[in-house]
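SEVERITY: medium
COMPONENT: batch folding queue
REPORTER: lab tech (J.R.)

DESCRIPTION
The queue accepted two submissions in a row. Attaching both inputs and their returned structure tokens so the on-call engineer can compare them side by side.

ATTACHMENT 1
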Amino acid sequence: MAGNSFRRSGTDPRTTPIASDASLRSGTTTEEPPPARPRGPRKLTVTRVAGHRVRELSGRAVGLFRRAATADGADRSGLTALTYATMLTYALDAAVAVALANTLFFAAATAESKANVALYLAITVAPFALVAPVIGPALDRLQRGRRIAMAVSCAGRTVLAVVLVFQLETWLLYPAALGIMVLSKSFLVLKAAVTPRVLPSSITLATTNSRLTTFGMAAGGVAGAVAGGAAFLLGSPGALWWVAGLGVVGAVLCLRIPRWVESTAGEVPAAVPASRPGARARVPASRSVLVALWGTSAVRVLTGFLTLFVAFVVKAGAEQAPAGDPAAQLFVIGLVGAAAGTGLFLGNAIGARSRFDRVEPVVLAAAGAALLAATAAAIVPGVPAAVVTALVASTASALAKVCLDAVVQRDLPEHARASAFGRSETVLQLAWVLGGAIGVLAPHDTFRTGFVVVAAVVAVFALQTALIRRGGTLVPGLGVRRAPVPEPGLR
């Protein structure tokens, strides 16, 4: 009765829960019970709480990822589907790099035989040499089947990865690795040609390409980490089986890209870097496009050089690089790689949020920054200088590529953009492999010599960039070709 009297009087609200609980247990009240609380596990343990927290955070991360991937109408335009396919190809590349690190790359880096180093260089260069003059133009003229070609690129890497699982110790290692790299570069050319077809109306090509690169790098980091764990537990075959699985998923995602990317109605080739006399009708590249292409190529030379040269020097135990300590060597290479990754994220983040009214000064600044970084590393050589150079070069590379994308969208008509992106991608790949070749062929007993050579090459590219901006050229035929200027109001 005391409980009932307190409830009726309401003299002490703090006692109401106690009275209500007693009344509910006795079944003598008509008052509604308090709202039910979510039930947790009957027995709380550290493992259960941690698992619940992981599921909660994972759900939030997946939701954030989906919102980012579908932002700005990307899900309706088809960009989301291309984003997923691009993420898988970056993941494939990272997993392949980890899987073949000990069997191919580091074997060449530590080999005393010049023949082995030359063979590795051939494996590295051949994909670009094939993609640029042969595969690139063929894909550029591909009128139908771009989605299928992209799917074949992923499926082909799956087949070659399975071949490598059983042939790691035979001569088939090199042609299979070569095939994987050729298919990877072919995918990039196709992706560059497809991107304008899935562009949402609310964002630019520069923003779109920055978004694709950012998503791809994130996927590559995760896939590389998984491949590293598989290689640690099961050796290179374990990582290669992971590559094969990724290739299957990538092929499926490529086929889910909307069918309208197959439409090439009205497309005409773009003349990049410049049209040749007597060639079939092409849309000529503007001066700004050529400036952006040469400037971006200057930076790509340096990034390609760093990718191979630093690892070779570290494995050789030169200067400040630790000799005979695989863990320390991997740490140094990881530092340079982390700096490069940070720079790419930084450059793409800045580029995606910036609107450059004049891209030429930005491209020249990027090429100049790359030249200064390479020169500084030659004057003060060592691991810290290589790390800083990687950060500067990757940031400059991302910014210059954003400018190139923006100027292609601005200066070329819509029907020529797909061709322009495909062709410019092959040019940039050749610039990267030129730097990589310098990194392999330069002496590996010191940092200084390699950086002196690459600084000189970057300086030539940067000078050509500056001359083209002023209407000149270092090499006849590689400058701006004047096209008839239509009268105002005429098209």
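ATTACHMENT 2
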Amino acid sequence: MNNYHVYGLGAALVDTEIEVSDQDLEALKVDKGLMTLADSERQQQLLAQLEGHLVAAKRASGGSAANTIIAASYFGANTFYSCKVAADDNGDFYLRDLESAGVHYHRSLSREAGDTGKCLVMITPDAERTMVTYLGISETLSTMELHPEAIASADYLYLEGYLVTSETGRAAAIEAARIARANCTRIAISLSDPGMVQYFRDGLLEMIGEGVDLLFCNRDEALGFTGADSIEQAAERLKQYTRDFAMTLGAEGALVYDGTKAVTVPSKPVTAIDTNGAGDMFAGAFLFAITHGHDYVQAATLANRAAGKVVSQFGPRLAAEQHQEVLETAMPA
């Protein structure tokens, strides 16, 4: 029997989430709705300009794949996460948060001096999230942080598309996928962000390699990645890269393909106030469900409900007890 349901690989970022206006984003010269990489100086400059907004700022451990793995863990999956944090206060905070969520990590790795990565998440009144990320030590995430035995014993390896922005991170993703294929561990990847698709498509193709088992994306990422003019065309083209896929469609739910048939699974209407983490939550719930005997329609039903819950409140995560509530309503016994 496998030890882990899901093994994740991605950046370790401590999030600071702030409410802003569209005018703030224009004044800051930040592209709305995308993730932009920045150095520490630029991030500090933005924080200084937003000083009046910081009253409601909250610190939380994040990073796309981490949000997914933590969600899967809270739903009941046995999980492992590989990342890189520095020997600093944020690094201590981050690992404590992983531990409290029941996520296993590589305890024997020594931590280097430097900065644990930070992400400034700006939420506009239309619930759109805009991110400025200083990767810090996460930029040097490499094959050294991999745990081959844990990958080999997992049902799924989950890779975040953001790894494509780092030479060593991309190499780690490719090596993790090689280990997974050699040990019959299925590979799941998320395209993560329209910006990754637009600017790093070749690197994403490298990470996908000879093909993956499951690909997560949203509508914009699917259209951008495949160069398609419609959802139907994008769905058809995705099949050359992946055996199965789950494409989120916002308020319309999700289009899932299990290798045999494509089905649109509707979602219940919610009032969105913060879309940060919606895709991560969807992937975490979906991976939990398919590693616990549920089919893709059932998995998407749970994932839609979980993503709907997370966008109806601030922050990319749900409280521990909320996962059980979502599970009981989406999958009644």
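NOTES FROM REPORTER
The radius of gyration is 18 Å.
No errors were logged for either attachment.
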